[in-house]
Amino acid sequence: RWRRRAMTAATAMSSAIATGAARGTPRKMDKRTTRSATVRRHRSAVRLEATSEAATAETYAPAAAAGESFDWFSAWYPLRPVSFLDANEPNELRVLGKKLVAYLDPTCKEWRVLEDSCPHRRAPLSLGYVQKDGTLACRYHGWAFDGEDGSCVSIPMSVDEAAEKTACASPRSCATSYPSRVEDGILWVWPTAGADGLLASAGAPCATSLAREGTLPGEWGMVELPVGYAPALENQFDPSHAEWLHARYDAEGQLDERANAGFVAMTEFSVREGTMQKDGFVVEHGGYNKSNVGVSASRVFTAPCSSRSEYLDAKGKKYLSAAILYAPTEPGRTLMFTKFQAHQASAVQGAGARKVSPADRINSLVTAPATSLFDFYVDNFTSDPKLVRVGLSHGTPPGSSAYNLGDQDILAMHGVEVEMELQNKPWKQSYYLPTPADAGVSAFRNWMDKHAGGKVAWAPGVVDDASKVKSEAEQLDRYHRHTKHCVACKTALSELGVLEERCVAASKYLLAGGLFLAVTGAAFDQEAPAIIATCLAGASLVGAEKVRDMQHEFLSSVPRRGVP
Ligand code: FES
Ligand SMILES: [Fe+2]
């Protein structure tokens, strides 16, 4: 049963730990082990402090052969899990700062990806509509495009057929189309158009199919992090942060020794020899808490988007698998796709979960009739019950608890990004990385420096000069992080809005009816109908408020009531 639960928890993660970190069954912290771990950590720090910062970084990343550069425009990028896309409408997307539109051609059921810019007067094609013949029509003046090659097939304001034919034959009327493919449940794009893009992409595999460890079962979760590519990837290569950032704290604000597995200093963390190259690298590391201290893990980075982790226990048995994908959408924003598979009970991420208390049980008994009524409503009165259920599983508890982990990561990553922007210094000067636990961050930064130009290469015209500072509300926003990208969540949110309106309307009619029954009932000494109608009106108002709470879960992590 735990295995099934673990799988469900993992696949329901719409925003999940960027670490692949495992947190085990809470156990009482062993003071002796903790002290010796602290001493070991201190010694290790002292030993490493003796080396220069630059040398420390070099230790973890062997020098690369000169001239081996990663080309940011010659790689497949994940755009969306296919299940997140709207199959009936154009989907607005972005990668490397390029604005894209993807739609499903109804004639052949193939996804098409075009630049989100109409060649006529540059209106967004994502405002348009998919036609029955498989073309995408621009909403501004009705030009229509073949999604396969971007060619213009219709210009409605042409004076005659010959003029239309001439204009459609001009390369200037052609929309820009990009190579795309569906693999491992994801729509991928190759961000170079034309013959060059077609040729280069044809023989290139997507990162997930390159993974020697194979693909993972279950559904992808996906969020768009409000932080840049580098801080997002650093967080991924820094697994031990989970022991503090995602730990539980007691009322005094101290690490709760009973609720956390207890950290253990990492002694093993290095780049596998000979793996650092333009297309990525492999890091290997041990455990970092008392539950996973015996594991040996490998993280395979396939540039620029994939980190595939495999954790083995001390006996060499599978412990935890994680597949995480990243795609830089624009400066300061990054897509993150997640899939986790826990092979053992102690590998289940416990942070964010909480024990079911007797009060919870009583509460669930009291709310059981309302829950059944809600389920009945979803099954019988919504446009697409299956899709609404998927959306509810992403956006409301327990699935939405994954947002809490994401919030913790985002607040830390955003802080790092803003401070690095302020300091405006090379990472080796801004960061002090004296412990083996920092080797993953060094490895990633070294790969960026040696092979990828030190930063993301954005599409022409995209300037990375905007401040990365975002308000807390923007950092904790859920709508732009996930909901607007997910057709299931958008459908669920829309249906909840309808339900709220219906609850409010029902309460108005019931109140009016109750008043009428009270007046007429008084004449016949009949009070019961009026009382029942008034009670139902009150229940409808309570229901409307509950539905408002549910909608808020899809919009923000900032509490709806009280201090934001
Ligand atoms: S801008 Fe697209 S048809 Fe005019
Ligand atoms: Fe969703």
UniProtKB/TrEMBL annotation:
The keyword Iron-sulfur applies. The keyword Metal-binding applies. Residues 76-189 form the Rieske domain. PROSITE patterns: RIESKE (PS51296). GO terms for cellular component: cytoplasm; membrane. Residues 18-42 are annotated as: Disordered. Keywords: 2Fe-2S, Iron, Iron-sulfur, Membrane, Metal-binding, Oxidoreductase, Transmembrane, Transmembrane helix. GO terms for molecular function: 2 iron, 2 sulfur cluster binding; metal ion binding; oxidoreductase activity. It is found in: Membrane. Its main location: membrane. PANTHER family: CHOLESTEROL 7-DESATURASE NVD, IRON-SULFUR DOMAIN CONTAINING PROTEIN. This is Rieske domain-containing protein. It comes from Ostreococcus sp. 'lucimarinus'.
